[in-house]
Task: structure prediction
Amino acid sequence: DARVTQTPRDKVTEMGQEVTMRCQPILGHNTVFWYRQTMMQGLELLAYFRNRAPLDDSGMPKDRFSAEMPDATLATLKIQPSEPRDSAVYFCASGLVPTPGGTEAFFGQGTRLTVV
Amino acid sequence: GQQLNQSPQSMFIQEGEDVSMNCTSSSIFNTWLWYKQEPGEGPVLLIALYKAGELTSNGRLTAQFGITRKDSFLNISASIPSDVGIYFCAGQRGGSNYKLTFGKGTLLTVNP
Result:
């Protein structure tokens, strides 16, 4: 059963601490998306990669957020230092491009981050 | 940036009723996707649409890609309690732009 795996599922941390979220995309997928979900803003795209190269990270606050793909089976999203306003659910999604139509992105279960 | 307007924001219906929701955009999209999200889970892909005018079904769900490529519709027939959740539309420009833009969601409540 192919699925996107995210760890940890839940993270509570103190303001100022570093947070690292991990994502294992579906095997064979070459595109990875990071989204943040909040009640106020809904699902916001933070960054996405194709073939491990960042294509767009304009949605990500560059001063504290960083996203990388060390290899094809791992994507990471790091926040340093974390702030209470970063509290949200962070989703990773993966897909395969190019396809005849577009990209069908499949989501992980998310990491619920609480910064106190 | 691109905005997707999804409506209605919420719906309260009786089991057995049909449901309709839609998404509109000021920009053209070449792909429309519909997702469902349940509490504590990530969005799950329901239907993908790739051509203007396309009508696609998945069980009791039917979605259409608008002719103008600026809108899409999702219908659920004969709703059941397990249809409860938040339904999201997402649009993709295509070409070399694989970015998915999401609507704010429609919260569906089904009363048994």
Remarks:
- The longest strand of chain B covers residues 85-94.
- Chain B touches chain A through 25 residues (CB under 8 Å).
